[in-house]
Amino acid sequence: MTSRMPADVALRVPGIVYGADYNPEQWPEGVWAEDMRLMRVAGVNMLSVGVFSWALLEPAEGRYDFSRMDRILDMLHGNGIAANLATPTAAPPAWFFRAYPDALPVDRDGRTLSFGSRQTFCPSSPAYRQAALRIVETVADRYATHPALVMWHVHNEYGCHNAACYCDTSAAAFRTWLRVRYDNDLDRFNEAWGTSVWSQRYYSWDEILPPRATGADPNPMHRLDWKRFCSDELLSLYTAEREVLRRVAPDIPATTNFMVMRTIDALDYWRWAPHVDIVSNDHYVLADDPEAEVDIALSGDLVRSLGGGRPWLLMEHSTGAVNWQHVNRAKRPGEMYRNALAHVAHGADGIAFFQWRAAGIGAEQWHSAMLPHAGTDSQIWHDVVRLGTDLRALAEIRGSTGAARVAVVWDWDARWALELPSQPSGKLRYQDLVRDWYAPLWRAGIAVDFIRADDDLNDYRLVLVPSLYLVDDTAAANLTTYAEGGGTLAVGFHSGAVDENCHVRLGGYPGAFREVLGVRTDELFPLLPGRTVALAGDVPQGATASLWSERVRLIQAEAVVTFADGDLAGVPAVTRRGHGEGAAWYLATRPEPAALRHLLDRICREAGVHPEQPAAAGIEMVRRRGADADYLFLIDHAGGGGEVAANGVELLTGKPIEGFVVVPPGGAAVVREPR
Ligand code: GLA
After folding, report:
1. By C-alpha distance, which of 576, 573, 562 is closest to 606?
2. What confidence tens digit (pLDDT) does each residue in 356-406 have?
3. What pLDDT sits at residue 2?
4. Same domain, 443 and 317
5. Which of 16, 183, 190, 445 has the fewest CB atoms within 10 Å of its CB?
């Protein structure tokens, strides 16, 4: 992959980064020395500090108290621990809102939210921006040359709680954004938004409001442009902070922790990633996810891809339970270790937790940490120390990356549009659709990059498009050219349906991909919840599909699978059109996992993509590619352990490997394979 990132600004921490959010301000200073001692035991080498410290750093407007932060940074430096110093702008203090009540956010129903937690501010508030940039500059001026400082942690999880504000200030900012997007041309704007429907024509920009609660289904473009605006609005806050930091401390890299996980979809990270020096991500497993390891792998590949293939940092995950799910389950024996190594396998050069010491007070007092409430006589502490030891043994993998021949298209615009109200089915979930296709590849040990639909595709033998409801002409042409030029392309149902303005592509579905796929659908038949439809053809006996079906007609393609019962019995469900060396596939339904795996096996085989070696069941197999060696990660999620063919040196034990490596039950092995 080509990098879209700015010039390299190196992170001055050797080996694999290991650490956490550190919030010593929550503890008496007498505890700090013990923290340092235990951090050395665990092998901690970098900490995020000051993430929510605004109220302590600036006790009153323009009055600063750096004494505590001075002591914290000096202490870290004295103990050889690097500081990833946060700008504290995710939690403005109480005095700020008292002075600037207009900076409080307003929700979709018109309620003004109150001070009382964090990230409760209007992203478009001039008062917030001014106060934020002032504290950023003040902090940067003070600490730019502090020897502990190695990175700026800008804000925290933009969009986690403050993705959208519906106040009048935000409305004005939204209008400004729209005027830029539509070249100040109100007719063009009305055309794009399709405002001839339901008497929605706007005669003045000033008539446009945020998509506040309204009586019936909203105009999809109102919602979609709002999502785009909200992502850009937060991005402009990030870049404003970044500019201050770059001016004051040009050699210190900056990051902000992304959240490429299932529940948050506020930001278009393709637009954000070029603005960070090092991509970092937070990942939390969801208690009801039966296969969280797939989510971790997918998120890791996506984060690595956002950085153009470069290694990234896991800025937060948890040692055990979190505090914000309905029921917060503890991690199973060895799960934290496997989670962490899986992030590394997918490109992380650093592993950090929220947080160092489990809080005794406040909203997160029941969130796990590296050092639990129970202290060092605990399983979690034991596991934390062991992980630190093993990460040290992996120091040489730093900087290595992935090497994929398969690309999966990922697009936030398409995701947002797919999940808007008024779709043929309200059950379409973008991440589920992508994960459906990703999981069998993951199981087969086939490496994947995520790409944008308009990226250069030449490096890939196979391009998968699990879901691309919205696509513009350029991206559609790019995918078409790829398939026509002999690449193998596979496209999921309801893709290519609308353009970037959510206008249906007329003449039959799947709109933009009709030609390249050689099919034409005249009507969509989404399936009711719980309904399945039988499949026949090149799928396992008795296979079914759910969620979606279409009346597909073959134009220049063959049917590989057909619907075998229901309203569409005999209609093609999966089609293939040969294009010279390659082929273009259409999956017009959601096959059950075994059937999808079977189809993807065939698609991969035909594209010349094979699992590099058969892995034992339940053992994740991933390679990172270094300058003169590959690093084979084997992680046993199933608990049975196993033997895998390999040669080289197993880094966690330091033992030479000839012929095969033993993966301990529930554990991991990492083999340096010379090239
Ligand atoms: C988020 C935040 C952290 C912490 C964790 C808890 O990721 O960034 O400050 O609240 O959640 O899981």
Report:
1. 576
2. 999 999 999 999 999 999 999 999 999 999 999 999 999 999 999 998 999
3. 40
4. no
5. 183
What's the number of CA atoms in the CB half-sphere (13 Å) around residue 25?
19
From 158, 364, 365, the mutation candidate for ligand 1 (largest count of ligand atoms within 8 A of CB) is: 364
Centre of ligand 1 to C-alpha 354, Å, is 6
Decide: 524 and 509 in contact? Cβ < 8 Å: yes
Residue 377 shares a structural domain with residue 436: no
Indicate whether 348 belongs to any domain: yes
Which residues form the domain of 322? 280-398
- Confirm if 630 and 673 have CB atoms less than 8 A apart: yes
Residue 448 main-chain phi, psi, to 5 deg = -135, 140
Give the per-residue pLDDT at 170. 98
| 501 in the same domain as 365 | no
398, 426, 443 — which closes off a domain? Answer: 398
User: Is residue 355 lining ligand 1, measured as CB closer than 6 Å?
Assistant: no
What are the residue ranges in the chain where pLDDT is below 70?
1-9, 262, 614-615
Contacts of 116 (CB under 8 A, 6+ apart): none
418 and 370 belong to one structural domain: no
Task: Tell me if 312 is assigned to some domain.
Answer: yes
Q: What are the phi and psi torsion angles at 12 (to 5°)?
A: -85, 60
CA–CA separation, 319 vs 309, rounded Å? 27
Residue 6 has what pLDDT?
47
Count of domains in the chain? 3
Looking at residue 8, what is its pLDDT? 56
Q: Residue 17 falls within a domain, yes or no? A: no
Considering the domain architecture, whether residues 394 and 413 belong to the same structural domain is answered as no
- Pair 440, 589 in one domain: yes
Ligand 1 lined by 156 (C-beta under 6 Å): yes
Report the CATH number that the domain containing residue 629 is assigned in CATH: 2.60.40.1180
Last residue of a domain, which of 398, 419, 453? 398
pLDDT tens for each residue of 35-81: 999 999 999 999 999 999 999 999 999 999 999 999 999 999 999 99
Report yes or no: 130 and 154 within 8 Å, Cβ to Cβ: no
Q: Would the CB of 367 count as within 6 Å of ligand 1?
A: yes
Instruction: Check if 586 has its Cβ closer than 6 Å to any atom of ligand 1.
Output: no
Which of 117, 155, 157 for mutating ligand 1's site (highest number of atoms within 8 Å of CB)? Answer: 157
